[in-house]
TrEMBL record:
Keyword Transferase: yes
Presence of keyword Chaperone: no
Organism of derivation: Veillonella magna
Entry-linked InterPro entries: KsgA/Erm, rRNA_Ade_diMease-like_C, rRNA_Ade_Mease_Trfase_CS, rRNA_Ade_methylase_Trfase_N, rRNA_adenine_dimethylase, SAM-dependent_MTases_sf
Catalytic activity, reaction form: adenosine(1518)/adenosine(1519) in 16S rRNA + 4 S-adenosyl-L-methionine = N(6)-dimethyladenosine(1518)/N(6)-dimethyladenosine(1519) in 16S rRNA + 4 S-adenosyl-L-homocysteine + 4 H(+)
A GO MF label: 16S rRNA (adenine(1518)-N(6)/adenine(1519)-N(6))-dimethyltransferase activity
Family named by the database record: Belongs to the class I-like SAM-binding methyltransferase superfamily. rRNA adenine N(6)-methyltransferase family. RsmA subfamily.
Protein name per its UniProtKB record: Ribosomal RNA small subunit methyltransferase A
Protein residues bound to S-adenosyl-L-methionine: N29, L31, G56, E77, D102, N122
Entry keywords, A to Z: Cytoplasm, Methyltransferase, RNA-binding, rRNA processing, S-adenosyl-L-methionine, Transferase
Domain Ribosomal RNA adenine methylase transferase N-terminal intervals: 36-207
């Protein structure tokens, strides 16, 4: 018999039995609602034997749902205390492998056997953005990323130019993937309940970026500059790249862009136009 881990009673029981006090520092808010686990697993569209990386399995609430889908689950957990818990709660699944470590430090290609995979996780909120950014920047063969994040972070990921939520995270996520919000999740779906509403976001990796970029390094330097100083004109904030005023003026003229606009109004295409004009100038 498979008893469902994602329920208030079982999470409470397991934590009590193993003497686990959830660590706020490690972002430990465990899911206690099975319907949320089911929706996350459904959004991942897993097939039997497919490799999936879970970040932060906790006591195994989401891991169980992933295991039941038949996928080949590799889960990386930082908190050593949880290893023996996971050994017990997931004992009956032979398609789960737990790795002890910090997801920002482990060699992901190696643990995923250098093959394409999906990432599914209820992320620890204190490092949500670094995790997402590093997964994207490493250019790993991640076919799909289905993650629970703070609602506000999910909004930043899907934000359009000119809105308050639009920033470097929006550009990076939309450059590499097609993101969409799957569902909102209220604080009471977790134990302990976090202070904010969460959301599940599904990011499908693009086959190629939506805009043509001659040099990605330059593109992301322009992106960084565009959002470095909110409410400054783009010409001004571009100075943070180290370019002088005259060069910035000629880059913007070449890109046919009005430098008096604010950086946060720039679309991916316009950011790419600036980066490509800069690139052309260097040739
Ligand atoms: N997946 C479980 C669930 O949904 O109930 C737990 C999710 S909890 C929000 C985040 C988990 O990530 C915790 O178990 C925490 O210990 C773990 N964690 C925190 N920092 C980590 C890191 N740098 N690398 C790997 N796991 C981490």
């Amino acid at each position: 018999l498979e008893s469902i881990i994602a329920s208030p009673e079982v999470v409470h029981y397991v934590c009590k039995r193993f003497g686990i006090h959830m660590s706020k520092k490690l972002g430990q808010n465990f899911l206690i609602r099975r319907s949320v686990v089911d929706e996350i697993v459904a959004a991942a569209e897993l097939t039997a034997g497919e490799p999936v990386l879970e970040i932060g399995p906790g006591i195994g609430t989401l891991t169980q749902g992933l295991a039941q889908s038949g996928a080949a689950v590799t889960a990386v957990e930082l908190d050593r205390r949880l290893l023996e818990v996971l050994d017990t709660t997931l004992a009956q699944y032979n398609n789960v492998r737990i790795i002890h470590g910090d997801v920002l430090k482990v060699n992901i290609p190696e643990i995923m056997n250098h093959k394409p995979f999906k990432v599914v996780a209820n992320l620890p909120y204190y490092i949500t953005t670094p995790i997402i950014m590093s997964l994207l920047e490493m250019k790993l063969p991640i076919e799909r990323l289905v993650v629970m994040v703070q609602r506000e972070v999910a909004e930043r990921m899907v934000a359009q130019p000119g809105t308050k939520a639009y920033g470097a995270l929006s550009v990076a996520v939309q450059y590499y993937t097609e993101p969409s919000i799957v569902m909102d999740v209220p604080p009471r779906a977790f134990m302990p309940a976090p202070e904010v509403t969460s959301a599940v976001i599904c990011c499908r990796l693009r086959e190629k970026p939506p805009v043509e970029v001659a040099d990605e390094k330059l593109f992301f330097r322009v992106v960084k500059a565009a959002f470095a100083q909110r409410r400054k004109t783009f010409s001004n904030t571009m100075k943070t790249t180290g370019l002088d005023k005259e060069t910035i003026a000629s880059v913007l003229a070449k890109a046919n862009i009005d430098g008096a606009r604010r950086g946060e109004t720039f679309s991916l295409q316009e950011l790419a136009d600036v980066a490509n004009a800069w690139y052309a100038l260097l040739q």
